[in-house]
Amino acid sequence: MQPLPYGLADRYGPVFGPACVGEGDSDLTVGHPGEPLGERIVVTGRLLGPGGRPVRGQLVEIWQANAAGRYRHHADRHPAPLDPNFTGAGRCLTDDEGRYRFVTVKPGAYPWQNHDKAFRPAHVHFSVFGSSFVERLVTQMYFPGDPLLAIDPIFNSVRDPVAAARLVSRFDLATTVHNWALGFVFDIVLGGREATPLE
Amino acid sequence: MSGATPSQTAGPFVSIGTGWDSGAGMAGEDDLGAIVVTGRLLDGGGSPITDALVEFWQADPEGRFPPECRPGWRGFARVLTDDDGRYRLVTHKPGPTGPGNSARAAREAPHIDVSIFARGLLQRLVTRVYFSDEAANLADGVLASLGSDELRSRLVARRREVAGSLGSGPRVPPVYDFDIHLQGDMETVFFAPW
Predict the structure, then answer these.
(1) Domain containing B69 — which CATH number?
(2) What is the largest CA-CA distance in chain B?
(3) Does ipTM exceed 0.90?
(4) Most buried residue among A124, A128, B135, B147 by CB atoms closer than 10 A?
(5) What residues of A are in contact with residue B65 (Cβ under 8 Å)?
(6) pTM value surpassing 0.90
């Protein structure tokens, strides 16, 4: 692999203004005739650049399976039900503190054909833009205490345990909403250098 | 060790989250000066990679990036590959660029920086598209660093005229063909994004 061309670390990140994100785009439980089945959760956190500076007004996109572990995609035909009240895609812009916030339901584990009895741990896919080309990141957020994390080859491709721990959200009582939703915090730190060590 | 959040694969269902209309493409087909860049995303065996996310980042025709570029220019577009592994981008050809005022940096030939996200890739692949009808390629520092004409040619999109793109009549944008091979003998040159 060739070294990255000089200058791309300084080259801008695209700007997605407020016109790109609609009211309700950050709530995955609305926009359908009824509410989706599953545990309602709030997922929030800060998008930070190298050195901890907040990334303000930048686009965050998420997608996920429903509570049964089924994706609303033609290529997912495995025997778990679709939810007519759930599509599983959302987006928002970070605020002045670099904070994003989504409301959704906790996704179920999703079986794949990688090996016998292979199930991905429950996860939410995240796509984020930073301030420059090199800060672009697509990753996955996991849930604390999930027994599948220990045996998931994708999660375990990150050999550094400190780095891998950054992929796991933290249950947070302050984010939890009484009588309504559990809260999970997931901060995302953009490296300016991609952070996954090669296998 | 890094303090950053690691990358994980985009997976097979990336279109669910990224297939919304972000203003796909940087030009309309009828725009004066529009071009088409198209090709197939292929694996080592030559099979198409479908449902992959390809993102394009480039300067405007004057070689400028946000925020110094022409008004309304985002310089970014994304395309999902189709059932044949094909992507198709409608844009304006970028102008030559320079990475700033550093004395060590040569001007760059017109190019588009590309990111690829797909199932099976733990992190994105980064490559770059140049244009076959640009003499500036000969002086481009990144192309020069590649070490062989064979490798250089893998980053150059071939211009193909299509019926109607020359002469009178409704304008049809010229097409630049650029297949991307993720592995194998014809593997496209990729850049380590760190």
Answers:
(1) 2.60.130.10
(2) 60
(3) yes
(4) A124
(5) 11-12
(6) yes
